[in-house]
Amino acid sequence: MRKISILVLTLVVIAIFWYLFLKPQDYQVSFKAKALPGTVFETVKAWNKTLDSVVPVQFETLEDFSQTIVTGDSLHTYQWNITKVHDSLSQVDVNIKDKDHSLMNKIKIPFSDTDFEKGSRKTLLDFNQFLKEHLEKFKVSIVGEEELFSTFCACVPLTNEPGEKAGGIMANYTYLSSTIFENGVEPNGPPFLEVEEWDLKSNSLSYNFCFPIVRSEKLPMNPSIKYKRIFNKPALKAIYNGNYVTSDRAWYALVNYAEENNIPIEKKPIEVFFNNPNMGGNEMEWTTEVYMPIKE
């Protein structure tokens, strides 16, 4: 009995030591989100900016990333772990730690519903409402495999954050279209965007915003405009309805579709725009064809 008592006491001491000093989080909040991990990640980034946070979301993977939230005189670290349940549902576990008061939180939590716990739940309820409202503002429909179009085009190369993609389009839409019109160049279809590099780690997007044109001798020589040809190739296609700011939600849907069906792809999406964002209107009626090239 004495040996058993010593063993039990030792295990209890080890458990208490782990809980107080080794357990990575002070508190965990779990919930389900009706979205893919990529959409949850992008929504957390957008929500983070509404909190006036000076610390950007720190990306590791779409399923594992961290966020730092300033609360009063404390810094709270939110470690997001996301597991896809199926195509329209993810399990979200958020491990929360107060860097300056972690030990005291761990001591108090088993005995009372602390302000730290209440504040953490309130913060994530706010996020859930933010996510719900966001999901109501767009729609993605997977079409499947289709041939990517071929065209000659005039393009403006741009680099910015993915969330600023629409701003780049709007800033150059009139400039590029008027330059083509003023020089008597014949347009040959709706404008589109061609991604050259999509870097989640650095939160950077390099892309060309292009107008399809008929090749001629009237092409204006402008240092900010380059000319190139897009060639036919197999691709996965989706239809996106919503604001161009968040059309990358279709990218994540296509990446998920490719993974589910073992289709090798190049993560360099092409978006074809059928509405001018500068004209406003009901964003759910805006239509974008989104292509994800298949590796050959």
From TrEMBL:
Q: Which Gene3D superfamilies does the entry mention? A: Regulatory factor, effector binding domain
The residues covered by the GyrI-like small molecule binding domain are 166-295
**Which InterPro entries would you find in this protein's record?**
GyrI-like, Reg_factor_effector_dom_sf
Q: What is this protein called?
A: GyrI-like domain-containing protein
What organism is the protein native to? Flagellimonas marina
